[in-house]
Amino acid sequence: MSTDDIVLPIIDLSGYLAPKCPEDREQVITQVRDASRQYGFFQVRGHGVPLSLQQDLLRSMNNLFNLPKEEKLKMSFLENPCRRGDEAAGMSLREGDPLPDAKECFYVAREDPIVEFSGFYGPNVWPNLLEDDFRSPVWSYYEQTSQLGKTIWLILLQGLGQPPALVENFAKRPIVPMKMIRYPPQSATLSGQFGIGAHTDFGGVTVLLQQPGKDGLEVWHEGREEWIHVPALEDVYVINCGDMIQRWSGGAYKSARHRVINKADGERLSCATFWHGDIHATNPLNPDDPNRETIGQLLVKRFRNQYSMTKESIAQVGVA
């Protein structure tokens, strides 16, 4: 079998969200568990996020990214204590990559009135656009995909034999950032430059929307040591596990490397919602884990050099 024949499974979540019999839920739990063990990635339909809302989000993203550069610069995430707002193209360079990512991004997260815990909680930055042209559809979409991320956590818990109720101790005030992304045409990138270079996601569950018909995502298959192409299908989300899930599951669930090469004509949009959990939460996949590192401690370990963290704010979260 060639790599072209390897396809990430597409799982219908309606069997879990609206089961017609108890076996429906068990089937979805098994499918998610097996895909997370084998690939660390899978696709879902029947997820409950309206197609019209997905389309509204993409329209809103175009409204945002087509603003003048001067307007976006005023919303730079570098000037925001919560790292919310605009990330210009070329600002993300991973260690070992010869060139920065070609992508442009805009970040939102939970809407909290004040900045807390090194900026992991706080207010969002909103562009000067009409409510219906950005903030309203983006926030509705954020809430829907945040709920979907929590549902995937519930399923992952059950896949390891844990009761779904554990998620309630893990999700009182979860950290759920969302990243809206625009990729330039491949013809506009430098030789050897990626939309996003190869990486693993840091934390929990990632819920990814790809602009339908505009392919670009590739997932590394360890067994074959080759990249799996993941087509951008309408009304189908791509789900993956991050490093924290791999660590907390004792390696039962994988965190796979992935990258983006814009294969479409013209620009390409995508949007990723990252569902991590509460800042002081410990491992729900194995409540008996002797390692009591919290999500906040792991976030500090991974991102302290990217955030403007004072000693006092780090002490609030704790250092792993």
Structure description:
- With 320 residues, the chain is an alpha+beta fold.
- It is 28% helix and 18% strand.
- It has one domain (3-317): Jelly Rolls (Sandwich), CATH 2.60.120.330.
- An eight-stranded mixed beta sheet has the order 1-2-10-7-12-5-4-3. Strands 6-11-8-9 form a four-stranded antiparallel beta sheet, with no helix packed on it.
- The protein contains eight helices and twelve strands.
- The model has no long low-confidence stretch (mean pLDDT 91).
- The radius of gyration is 19 Å and the shape is globular.
- It has helices spanning 14-17, 22-38, 51-65, 69-73, 135-159, 243-248, 295-303, 311-317; strands at 10-12, 41-45, 85-87, 104-108, 178-183, 196-199, 205-210, 217-221, 226-229, 237-241, 258-260, 268-275.
